[in-house]
Amino acid sequence: MPYKINIDDRTIEADIVKRKPLLRVLIGERQHTVTEARCPGSGDFEITIDGKIYSGWRYASSEDVYMRINGRTFIISAPRGPGELADDGSAKNEVRADMPGTVVSVECKDGDEVKSGQQLMTIESMKLQVGLVAPRDGVIEKVHFAANTPFDGGATLISLVPLEDGEE
Amino acid sequence: MLKKVLIANRGEIACRVIKTLKDMGIGSVAVFHHEDRAAPHVQLADESVQLTGDVPTAAYLDQAQIIAACKSTGADGIHPGYGFLSENAGFAEAITKEGIAFIGPDPDAMRLMGDKIESREFAAKNGVPIAPSARQTGSLEEFIKEAEKIGFPLLIKASAGGGGKGMKIVRQKGELEESIRVASSEAQRYFSDGRVYAEKLVELPRHIEVQVLGDGKGNVVHLFERECSIQRRYQKVVEESPAPNMPRDLRDRICAAAVKLASAAKYKNAGTVEFILGADGEFYFLEMNTRLQVEHPVTELVVGLDLVAEQLKIASGQGLSMKQSDVKQTGHAIEVRICAERPEKDYQPATGRVGVLQLPMGHDVRWDGGIKEGQAITPAFDSMLAKLICYGETRADAVAKMEVALHDLVLLGVPTNIDFLGRIMRHDVFKGGKLHTGFLTDHAESLMPPELTAEEETAVILTALLGDADFRISAFEVPEPYASIGAWHN
After folding, report:
1. Which of A28, A32, B165, B202 has the fewest CB atoms nearer than 10 Å to its CB?
2. Which of A76, A126, A130 sits opposite B460 (nearest CB)?
3. Could you tell me which CATH class the domain A91-161 is placed in?
4. SS3 of A101, please?
C-alpha cells in the first residue's frame, strides 16, 4: 500500500520495498536506497539517498511540509499514508478563501454559466485586492458573500455545480 | 537629546529604531497589540505598553492610547516608523501639544506633501519638473476632455493616495471614463477621498528617489539616490544605491531637484523625494514621503550614516550633523524585501508560522527583521517580514553577496518570496542593470520557479516521508513479519 505525495498538480506514489538491511523505497518506477537518515519532523536533516548526501531544513505544519534543500524551498502537502482519504476533487466545486478578508465586488450571480478562469469575485485580504476565478466550467450554485461583507479564512465564497448531468 | 523614545510601530522597523536608541543610550518604549505580545520588538525594547483595538492594526493607530503610554512611561519623543501614524499631521500636532517630540517633519510639511495635487503644484512653482497632468475641477465631462489633451497612455491616480491604490493605466479614449470611475471609488474606499487626477504615463519608467535631511530652517542635504524600479503591484521589492547605469550629471540634477524642493518646504528631518525617470532621460517629481522609508538601509550603507540617529539629533534640536560636501557615496548596496507571499500565484499574500529561521551570515550582510521562530504570520499586518541588505564594492559584488545570502537564508513555515528574489538576482537583465518598473511583468515567465529535476524530486519525496512519524514507524520500527503484511495499522 503506497504513500501518496502531491507535488504541484501531480500525485506521486511511494512504497517501502525493503526495510533491512537497507531501506529501499519505490518512487514511481524507480527504487532508491536510503542509507543514513537523520530527519526530524522539524529542524535540520541529513539523509543519504543512493549514496549521495542531502542536507537542509525541514518544517511540518499541520497541512504542509516545508523543505529547504540546496538553497531552494519546496512546499508540498503532507504525505498521505496508506488508507488515508484521497482528495475527491470536490474542492474544484468551491471557491474558498485562504485567509480572512472582505468582498470588494461580485462579478457573477446564482445560476450564471461560467467558464474556467473567468473572474467571479474581487476580494481584499492583507491590504491587497485579488480576483478570484472559476476553477472549472460550471454553473454558479450560490454566491455566499455579497460585496462589502467580511469573511473568515477557509470560508466557501462561491459554490459551483457541473454544467450538465454527466458532462465533466 | 531626547531621553526616552516610544516607537509607535511594530515589526522590523520598530526593532530597527530600538537598535539605534540602544546605541545612543536613549531609553526605548515599545507598544504592542495582544497578538504581538511576544514579538521581537517588545522583547528588544526597555519597556513596553499594551494597546487595545478592535483589530490589531487599530491599536497601533490609536493616538490617545499612544499619548497615554508616553505619559505613563515618561517618554519625551515618539518615532513613528513608516506606515501607521508616520504621515499623520494631526498626530504630530497632538503629541507636540502634549510636549512630546515627533521624530519627523513639521505638520505643515506633512500636510503639503501628503496631498498629491498640492505637492505637485508646490514642486512646479519651485522649478522641480512635474509630468503633464489634469485634475478635476468641474464636471466629469470637462475632466475627461482635459485628460484627453495629455494624450495616451495616461495614468489616473488618487489625490490622497499612495502605494498604487486607486491607480489605473488608460491606453485609449474608450477606457477613460470607466477607469476614472473605478479609480475614484477605490480612492474613496482606501483614503476616504475620491478625488483623482490624470497624468502622462512615462514609458519604461524608472523609480528613482533621493534621501534628504533637513533642519527645518531651509538647510537640506541629500544622501544620494536609490533605484527602486523592481516593483510588483506598485510596491517595491528590490532597492539599491547608487542607481545603476545613471550618468553622473543626471544623478546630480535629480539630487539637486530634491534638495531644491525640500529646501523650499523648509523641510525638517528625514524625507524622500521620489521621481519617475523616463527612457528619454527626462525626470518628473512623483511625491515626497515625509518619513523614514523601508529602503533607508541601502543609503545608510553607501554613505556610512545611521539615518535614525540623524533623525533623533534633528528632533532634539541639534540640526544637521554634516555638510553636503561631507557626504560621499561609496560602494553599492542592495536590499530585498522578504514577504509572506506566493510570487508564482500573482503575489498572493500568505499566512503561516515561522517554523524554522536561519539567518545568512557575512560581514556585508544586514538583516533588518522583526520575526522569530514560533511567531504566527497572520493577515492582521503587512506581508513584509524582513529586509535583507548586502553591501559590496561594486554592484556585481553586492549582487553576488545577495545571491549567497538568499541561498543561505532559511525561513520555513510560511510561503515567501525568498527563492523568487534569488531568481531576480541571477537574472541577466537585472545583472545588466537595465531596470524599469515593468521588469517583473516583462520577465514574469523567466522568473518562474524552474521544474524540479528528477533528483530534486526524489530528495523532496524522501525528505517529506522520512520526517513523517507514521512513515518512520513503518520503515524502521515494524517487526519484519508484520511489516510484510503491509498496511497493518489500518
Report:
1. A28
2. A76
3. mainly beta
4. strand
